[in-house]
User: Which sequence fits this backbone?
């Protein structure tokens, strides 16, 4: 019987295609997972206060096995990714940084916080999940 991982996949709905591609990688690699990410249809990310969103993220990270963060350059300037990194640290949750496909520049903030850095590749992501989480 395979293990089911509890994953928090950091994302911005402005970059929803990257989130969709990461979940596709997981499915293609046979990773069984429960998605702890803040869902697109959850009104707290569009209608709630910053405090409510932070509490929602905190609750989701607290119960997960580990965190996956896309290490694009935009991540360096994202207030919420910095919050997610801090919350992950509060609960000692391992972080996998995924370097975007064909990117020349990546987020040093995310990569420094990461326990593992992987390329934009389903197998490397799945292997890191199996090893760390």
Assistant:
């Amino acid at each position: 019987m395979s293990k089911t991982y509890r994953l928090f996949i950091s994302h911005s709905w402005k970059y929803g295609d990257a989130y969709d591609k990461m979940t596709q990688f997981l499915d293609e690699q046979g990773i069984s997972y429960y998605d702890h990410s803040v869902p697109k249809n959850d009104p707290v990310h569009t209608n709630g206060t910053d405090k409510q969103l932070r509490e929602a993220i905190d609750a989701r990270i607290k119960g997960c096995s580990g965190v996956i963060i896309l290490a694009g350059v935009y991540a360096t300037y994202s207030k919420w990714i910095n919050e997610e990194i801090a919350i992950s640290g509060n609960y000692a949750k391992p972080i996998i940084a995924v370097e975007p496909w064909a990117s020349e520049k990546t987020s040093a903030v995310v990569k420094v916080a990461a326990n593992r850095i992987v390329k934009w590749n389903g197998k490397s992501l799945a292997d890191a999940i199996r090893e760390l989480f």
